[in-house]
Structure prediction request, 458 residues.
Amino acid sequence: MAKKRVVSATINGEVVEFLCEPRQTLLEVLRDTLDMTGTKEGCSNGNCGACTVLLDGRPVVSCLVLAMEADGSEIRTIEGVARGSHLDEVQQAFLEGAALQCGICTPGFIMQTEALLQANPNPTEEEIRFYLAGNLCRCTGYDKIVRAVQAAAQKRLATT
Amino acid sequence: MHDFDYERPVSLVEALSLMARHNGHARPLAGGTDLIDQMRLGRHQPGALIDVKRIAELNVLAADADGLHVGAAVPCCRIVEQPLVNQQYTALVDSCRIIGGIQIQSRASVGGNLCNSGPAADSTPSLIALQGVCVIAGPAGTRRVPVERFCTGPGQNVLQPGELLVEICFPPRPPHSGSHYRRLIPRNEMDIAVVGVGAAVELDESGRTIRAARIGLGAVAPTPLWAEEAGALLAGQPADDVQFARAAEAARKIVSPITDMRGTREYRIHVTGVLVQRVLRAAVARARGEAFTYLPGH
Ligand SMILES: Cc1cc2nc3c(=O)[nH]c(=O)nc-3n(C[C@H](O)[C@H](O)[C@H](O)COP(=O)(O)OP(=O)(O)OC[C@H]3O[C@@H](n4cnc5c(N)ncnc54)[C@H](O)[C@@H]3O)c2cc1C
Ligand code: FES
Ligand code: FES
Prediction:
């Protein structure tokens, strides 16, 4: 069997070392080795976006990244979004706008929205829908998600 | 997934020697957006993955006197932000903006799109239209293969065991030239092309006559196609709808699409003609310096 190797990455600002096999995805390691189960598994083939995390600042589907590829990288997951016990603007807007039902897609949508607002702080509805096209939701019908993203963007613009 | 080794070489020499050492049982890994799922499904079971993302030569994205060099491992998200590519190689930008969603574009490379050699790969018709040439390195040295000769069948290409695609090289774009890629899909985004067409045109100084044109077609044959005749018959002709219709007719003649859930053979042949005309119109508009923004889904 291929040797396990030590991988070192900065996850949500903390240096984390873990042991993994080449065949383990970043998603598997986050959930099963590091107990960071906020990142969800939907399809495991890159289509649903439930497993979205930020890798060196870019949104990626962690089910299509090998954990070993993350060596030396900086990762942000849903666990790193709230500031202490305070939800950030995006989380708060999803909650207030009822932009979730079962919630399995929500961490992925929130990470993707964080990436969107970083790149484009005041997106149009069309830009929001386009940027979030890689995230699927079986429950909400998307409208409330789009409204929540707009609300979060406005709140951030007003406070910065 | 099956058990395999993982290597992350930092030079081309090291990567080639790793490929040689694994003697045909290693596969290059770029963004993994095709390969990891194919391995999960058991379609490929390589003994080792050679991660090519840290190799400098495969990360080049720059122009020199020879033209534009796009390293095989450069992800779509870098290509769509490169200023020169945005000004002069717009068909490539059109392609890279619609490969998957934003998350996929963070990882997916044009090299991987080409080496996966799917008939519907969205960047390949643009590479053909822009006259891309593959630079391939292997145990016997380096060779160059025009993109239109790279794919040999669905999932098949000219790469020999131990070879790596290093970059795709494009000649400088002449003045008064423009290019465009678009595909037809039943949704607005995140789907596989029913038909995809890329075209590049060069006009004379007046902007009315076509000097040269190249057209690439996707999803209408076992491999992406270069519609050589369709492009050639535009040379010296006025850049108008009559000529675009002639080119469309010539393109329709060389396709051999299949019928599947995305469309019948007849439908794909028809759409080939429609898209060739639309893409030529847009490429000509861009060559004239007219603003033309492609919003996928519109
Ligand atoms: C959700 C989703 C949506 C998608 N949507 C689209 C789409 O709209 N259009 C489209 O065209 N594709 C789409 N794809 C497919 C895929 O993303 C693209 O084909 C992508 O460009 C592949 O690039 P990669 O860097 O991820 O390649 P990888 O998966 O790393 O590699 C692909 C193949 O190329 C080989 N390879 C990679 N680099 C080299 C090299 N330098 N030399 C030799 N061989 C090499 C690998 O061994 C493998 O066989 C989608 C995929 C997903 C998961
Ligand atoms: S679980 Fe990764 S995209 Fe669906
Ligand atoms: S809330 Fe259930 S999938 Fe989105």
Observations:
- The two ends of chain A are 52 Å apart (CA to CA).
- The helical segments of chain A are 26-33, 89-96, 106-119, 125-131, 143-159.
